[in-house]
Each structure stands twice: as structure tokens, then as C-alpha cells.
Amino acid sequence: MKIGILGGGQLGRMLIQEALKYDDEWFTLDPAKDAPCSGISNFTEGSFNDYDTVFDFGKGKDVVSIEIEHVNVDALMELEECGIKVIPSPQIIQTIQQKILQKKFYLANDIPSPDFQAIQHKSEADFPLPFVQKMNTGGYDGKGVQVIKTAEDLQKLWDVPSVLESLVDIDKELSIIIAITENGESRTFPVTEMIADPKLNLLDFNICPAEIDEDAENQIRKITEKFAEAAQSPGLFAIELFLDKKGKIWVNETAPRLHNSGHQTQEGNANSQFEQLYRVLKNLPLADTGSLGFSGMLNLVGEEHFSGKVKYEGLNEVLKLPRTYVHLYGKTETKPGRKMGHINVLADSRQDLMEKLGQIKSMVKVISS
Ligand code: ADP
């Protein structure tokens, strides 16, 4: 099969890396000529936001998918009209691309997500403090999100279409990855805890399985069931969740694609999120997602103050550790905060896992030479 992926970053790279054990032809589209997928697939340099570029790229493929949601949806709709399979559906990508539509989708489908007001201009803001402002489009990795706590803070409001959302008193940030087939069959991975780096606002650690009680598990199961029903689309989706201090689960947002919170599935589960998306794209039986014990992931992120040719300090020491797996994304240049790779770790207990992750974090640094 000819499979085309919009985006040529690390998510696509790890998908192709996993799927090369099967027989398919892989095509990727990315504006950066040295994108992580450029050397391992039939690569087209171009914009996935441009209608003609996306349409031309998709023509002649058996299935087109994404590894980033900020793509030209009109071109995907046209490709679908021409009989090309697009996974996930352009409609669900469009809903997720715009925070306002995404929040309305949760509301319409009785999926618990924090209360909100949708605004076009800051002058319309009329929402109880404290709240979080999220830009309707263009937000990524915590950019385009700000907390408004006091009346004074209101001056900081961005004058762009946004969602104003209640501030959740967060106990834990969680994620669940769900795969949905064309026939509507679905399967989830175990719930993962995401622990963020407060400085970079980027995901730092994953811990799987999450330490949550049965009640939280049940709330999450109901959310995934409702989501699978409402999405009306095959695909692999990462639903980011908050567990608040009273034990209630809220949906933060959904990514209609592979996700950083699922990287530890590469060695931590019977099959990875990458294998699972492959199964969905090919309409094959879904893979076993069971966990093989406690697993975790540490992002390798470009250190502050270092830009240029990347150097991974301490990596040889990490490679000596048992049940520790290094994944690099083929990026030659580091920048502060840039995701360059990750390290997966398996352990027999949660405490063991936390200790190992902490130890590895102090051993390795992403700097420039
Ligand atoms: P992005 O898509 O840019 O990652 P998110 O919507 O996930 O943005 O927000 C980034 C971070 O901001 C979240 O991981 C969380 O820590 C915080 N955050 C977002 N929404 C809320 C909220 N309603 N209440 C409290 N914290 C929030």
C-alpha cells in the first residue's frame, strides 16, 4: 500500500520505523528538507498547510494520515471526494484544530471538559476569574495558553479568537490513547501520567500505568466510550485529561494523532501506539495493548542557552543501564526546548521507575558541540 503522512517529524519517523517490518511504501510531506522522516521515506518538501501541495501529495496514495493536526483540511476533504482514504476524518481534524469547535464538541457530546466562554475579541470577555485563555488556533506545546488570575491580569488578554476556560485545580495530568477502526471497534492503552517541566511547559516525564483509583478509571472509560462514539472517525487519538483535587476527571484537549504521552508503549506494552496506528491505517485487527510492567519516558529536550549542532552528553552511561531504551529523532540541530529524542525505561515498581527516571535525567544533557 502507498501510505502518505502529512508531517515528517519524529511521530511519523517512529511510525515508519515500526511499520517497515510490513510491506508498504511510505511517503511524507514536510516544509523542512531535513525533517526526521526525510531520510527514511519518499519525501516531499512542501507545506502541509497549502491546499495544492496537500492535494498533489495525497493523489495516488491508498491512505493519507497526519502526524500533526495543523494541516489543510479542505485538501483532505477533496482527496476523500476522489476516493482516497483519509484517517482520521477531515471533519474531526477540523473540529480539533479549532479550540472553540473542540470545546463545543465536548459539550454537545456530554464529555466533561471545563466550563468555557468562546470569544472573538478580548472586549467580549465575561467569565469568572481565575481562568485560562487558549487561542482558538495556533497554540502548540503550551504556547497560546495563559492563566488570567486577577482583574489586573485582564489587561494581558490576547485580542484573538479564544476559549476562556475555568482553571482546574489539578492533581494529575493524565492521557489515554484510543485507537478506533473503520468498523467502529476501539481499544485503549493504559492511562499514563504526564509530568511537565514547569520552565519549558513541555512534557518531561511519562509514567505508566497512572496511579489513580477505580473511580477515576471508570470516569476515563466513560469518556473514551463517548469519544469513540462521537468522533465518527477511525484513527488514533490521545485524550489529555486533568484529575482535579476532588477526584473528578476533565478533558483538556485531544490530539487526533500519535502523541508524546504514548512513547513508552514502544517497549512498555505488548504493542506500541505506532503499531496500533498502522493497524488502523490498514484496517487490520487492533493490537494487544497490555503493559509489560511499569514503564516511563523522559524527553530529551534541548538545554537552554545551547543552539547548533547537537551533542548528547552522558548518553553512553545511559546506554549501560538495563531495560533502558534510547530513541533519537534524527535532528542535527538543537535549540532550547526542542524535542530531540526520548528515553524509555522499564521497572518492577513505580518507585523503581521514578528513581531510574530521576537518575537518567541528571545523567544526560542535550547541548551543542
Ligand atoms: P497545548 O495544546 O499548547 O499543550 P494545553 O491546552 O494542553 O496546551 O495547556 C497547556 C498546559 O496548561 C496544560 O498541560 C496544563 O498544565 C495547563 N492548563 C491548560 N488548561 C488548564 C485549565 N483549564 N486549568 C488548569 N491548567 C490548565
Which helices and strands, and how do they pair?
Elements: E1 2-6, H1 10-19, E2 25-30, E3 42-45, H2 51-58, E4 63-66, H3 73-81, E5 85-86, H4 90-97, H5 99-108, E6 116-119, E7 131-135, E8 145-148, E9 162-166, E10 170-180, E11 186-188, E12 192-197, E13 202-208, H6 214-231, E14 235-244, E15 249-255, H7 265-268, H8 273-281, E16 294-301, E17 308-313, H9 315-319, E18 324-328, E19 333-334, E20 339-347, H10 350-363, E21 365-368
Parallel strand pairs: 1-2, 1-4, 2-3, 4-5
Antiparallel strand pairs: 6-9, 7-8, 7-9, 10-11, 10-12, 10-14, 12-13, 13-16, 14-15, 16-20, 17-19, 17-21, 18-20
Helix pairs in contact: 1-8, 2-3, 3-4, 4-5
The structure holds adenosine-5'-diphosphate.
